[in-house]
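Q: What does the assembled structure look like for these inputs?
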Amino acid sequence: MRRLIPTVGLRAIPVGAAVAFLATYPLYHSNVETLKFTLVGIYLIAILGLNILTGYSGQISLGHGAFIGIGAYTTAILVDKTSLSDVATIPLAGLVAGAIGFLFGFPALRLHGVYLALATFGAAVAFIQLVQSVHYQSFTGGATGLFYGLPKNPYYLTWGIAAALYAAAWLLVHSKLGRALTAVRDAPIAAVSSGVNLALAKTLAFGIASAYAGVAGSLLAIRLGSVNPYSFPVALSILLLTGAALGGLGTLNGVVFGALFIQFAPDFAIDHVSKTAPEVAYGLILLAVLFLMPGGAGELLHRLGGLLKKAAKPLYSRTADRAEAVVTSTRSDT
Amino acid sequence: MALLELENVEARYGPIKALHGVGLSVNEGQMVSILGANGAGKTTTLRAISGIVRRSGKVLFAGKPVPRAAEAIARLGIAHVPEGREVYGELTVWENILVGASCRRDRREARRDCEQVLEHFPRIADRRRQQAGTLSGGEQQMLALARALVSKPRLLLLDEPSLGLAPTVVSAFYEVVTQLNADTGLTVLIVEQNASLALDVTSHAYVLEVGRVALEGPSSELKEHERVRASYLGY
Amino acid sequence: MLAFTWTQFWQQVVSGLSDGSIYATLALALVLIHRATGVVNFAQGNMGMFSTFIAWWLIYQETGPGLTFWLGFALVTLMSFVGGAVIYGVVIRPLQRGGELAIVIGTIALLILFQGLAGWIWNPEPKAFKSPFPNSQLHIGDVVISWLWVGTILVSLGCVAVVFLFFRLTRTGLMMRAAALRANTSRLMGIRVTLMLALGWGLAAALSAVAGMMAAPSLGTLDPFFMLSVLVYAFAAAVLGGIDSPIGAVVGAYILGVGISLLSTYVNYITVDSQLNLPVALAILLVILLFRPSGLFGRAVVRRV
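A:
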């Protein structure tokens, strides 16, 4: 019990600080700057979903941007054509995107690993072309898109939803389904023999991830007041994957860093390097993360956390640990 | 002279140590077997020799330490027929044999040897244009052997050749190997689970237990040894 | 619906064969890499794009060396071969320790990297890439076929054939096939597996360069994104043919090329909006995969879960 308090206490500090920071940020900063953090919140939601899909259930998706687009367009069309308020469309956007993701998950089951990445890549490219097609122009506004509202800054709305969805993701990952997903990723055969319904788990992961993306897209649509096909290029999907990898796939701790990176890195690169440099920067950073820190920021945090835990232990228990280590090492030589 | 010498060889698969200091020696022209239960480290020993698994300790071939890379070890004249045969199922029988000659520099001679080796195995010679994956287990074992022989090795490592094969097929296989040893003086090191078969065929044997050499000696003696009889021969 | 004439039909078929040749070249590259390294190289298209930019600089740019087309073509193909092998050694091989996911993300990183590099070095404004083939047309009866189509088919098919023959007939080709099938066993045979895999990546990069240099004249302009849709079609072709079957990829590519060409001409829905070509192709592919998951020529692999 004496050991427990320091560790729980340690975790509460950064979380509390983050909450305080976010809650008070708009009070002391201009609208432009607050807006950037709104976008960080939106990306956070998107990456949470992608992490569940790729990090936890091991399915690579290069079409996440398309699902954000689906959510965005759902909100746009509903606001444009019905009398629903924009906030009311958020859960609907999540539902629509989630349902489509779930349905996409079924044929995706037949395509494992690489084929899935291919299919999602194709979906990302296809989404843009479908949405700008003349056939659906009455719905989607074709190449010019839809203009249905004024640009807004839904800061508190976004972060409120982000916090709730983060908690939901945390619960999911630590639940039976979460463990099933990790089992599916790490040892599919063992998972099946333990009774995990592989198909269902994987398809659910797809659905949940897409729902998250849909909500993110909806918030984005509310923020922009307009949507067009070119807001969701393939590069967006790749960017999201970069952010997720940077934050650490398979852990929720670093997701915030991924979101921060997605928002601030392009500006940095554009200001300090060149207009087209962002892509070069992403590529290089992604490679660097892969080589140096395959676990991303999440792994870094985990390691830091481990170090802090050791430092926080009262002295007597550290000595006890060392004694234990000596005993076990002499035993292993027989 | 000892063609192959192992001294205090250790090997691990990740965090698990499989060999805890194995020592053995094989003289030129000998047929030696390594026996032991599942997981004793027999296959790992062969892999440590052929370079597929990382090892520490000494491995000497013809008095000189062997290089690290498996490709280089193969070129020295050590041919390893792996567990499960590992023929290239998609390639034809002929192509499989050609691949076996990859380490030879003398192209024309090598090609002639490929033809010759095939003549020694008429059953698979008939199927030379067939995909190797369509061959029976016994035929695949012969093919794997032919493929190894084409590299003109000085030392042949056989990993559980009897696995999954019918007794008649196995004895036919060992007849070929024994004949080769008698005719050409090819040195053979055999890992076998079928202890009585191995002790009949070889002149010397090592018994591995938990990654170490527990017993060694002439096969005829080991056959009478109480522990061997109880644990491995069943009587 | 367009009034059907045989002339129109054959013209569309040849046009489809021309597109199919480009897809076939890139699809073969994808299959090569997949057989050798077990992953799909998402950067394959953009590697070809980058090579094509180098070709543009060598051949067409005013301030560049101004080489003749085929000299530039040969040089770029050679450079791409070397470049592909280097990329394997420097980027891919170290990542193999991290498993499939790490390699795939690595290729995605390369995809963006090349896109950014091309835009950065040569600026992203579309550039003209003239056809190396005569502008005249070939008349077979009533059917009018452009030399561009014929040239594309011959060059692409020629390169693909050379690669096939290399694998079938040469010693190195056999060793590469063996190394791709079973890496450790091949080492036991004395094959330098790492070198073989690097050669495989080199060949794939060379094929991508050919695909790019044939696609650019067909499209007329060159920009950092032009190979993305070609990549999707090549994927589709490879998957259609069975991701590990080189012949399947080539056949799949031609079926795809001709199929889309005919569909876009005769099916009104698509004729109106050529943007729908790609989604329709993908939809058809998905349907085919639902019924034949290993593609037309793929072996029905016993799926381990």
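The radius of gyration of chain C is 19 Å.
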